[in-house]
Amino acid sequence: MNPLVSIVIPCYNYGRYIRKTVESVLKQAYKNWEVIIVDDGSTDPFTISALEEYKNKSGFTVVAIPRSGPSAARNVGIETAQGEFVLPLDSDDMIHEDYLSEAMSAYEKDPSLGIVYCEAEFFGSMKGKWNLPEYRFPNILLDNCIFVSSVFRKSDWEKVGGFNENMKNEWEDYDFWLSLIERGGRVYRIPRVLFYYRIGHSSRSQRSLDRFLPLYMQLYENHKKLYLENIQFLFQRHLEAKRLEEEFLILTKSPFVYAFVRLLTTFLKYLSLLKRKFLNV
To answer: Could you name the CATH architecture of 5-206?
Structure first.
């Protein structure tokens, strides 16, 4: 099995990082790949100059579009791609030299897989293992555990209509995984750290709690049937969180747990709003 893998790299003013990203691709043990770089309206002269280097490089295609955001940029890149498989890769992240070979091996062993990803580490302003929970359904309806740099078939991307551009600047990958899962896509995590996620350069790495609710509500609108089919699980999780809130309230006099309790209480309010939304359908 030696299918072409298209690595799609959106880039908006990240010229100072993209060379390291590309270097991690060039080191791949699996050699049948192409790189599609989508210049998402970069205005930084350094970035524009950096991308010029790849326009005539073998195995690379550079596509320039007006500023459109990550969902649209990935869709343009995947539309351009010639590969059977796709790996989105942000222009400031990196992959281990074995990532593609391990992913293709997984697909060869089990062609029914729809998403293949791996374990990951942070680098940049924060270092260490990214301790994401292993994928389980329906748990993913409440908490995404699959990062965007995961491998999938271009044909599956076509079937679900690509990355949903109504997700704007966040959670477009979460929405896309739910689309694949809705169609029966099976998920496999390679038990090795093969992806490196940069922390510290932008707000997309640091999400605040007050942004969660509209994102969850948009996910619900995009995948209403999937959420309603699993509403019993969602209510059960809400009741479990409510019980935890009551247990922790007795500790609120302690300054060490007060901040945590406030955070938990706020999240519970968001879950209650979601529940009311479900019941009003």
So the answer is: Alpha-Beta Complex (3.90)
Strand partners, 121: 129, 196
**Cα angle at 17 between 116 and 28, to 5 degrees?**
40
| Distances 205 to 40, 60, 95, 126, 144 between C-alpha atoms, Å | 19, 27, 17, 11, 14
Residue 21 contacts by C-beta under 8 Å, 6 or more apart in sequence? 9, 89, 90, 91, 92, 93, 94
Look at residues 188, 185, 180, 186 and name the one whose alpha carbon lies nearest to residue 223: 180
Nearest in space to 38 (alpha carbons), one of 27, 47, 28: 47
Q: What is the DSSP string of 171-198?
A: -HHHHHHHHHHHTT-EEEEEEEEEEEEE
- C-alpha atoms less than 13 angstroms from C-alpha of 95 in its C-beta half-sphere: 29
Chunked into runs of 10 residues, the chain (281 residues) has average pLDDT values of 96 96 98 99 96 96 96 98 99 98 98 98 94 93 95 98 86 97 96 95 53 84 92 78 65 53 60 60 48
pTM to 2 decimals? 0.84
Q: CA 128, CA 7: separation in Å to the nearest integer?
A: 25
Residue 173 CB: number of other CB atoms within 10 A? 20
Neighbours of 68 (CB within 10 A): 17
Identify the burial level of 48 via C-beta atoms within 10 angstroms of its C-beta, where 0-12 means exposed, 13-18 middle and 19 or more buried.
Answer: middle
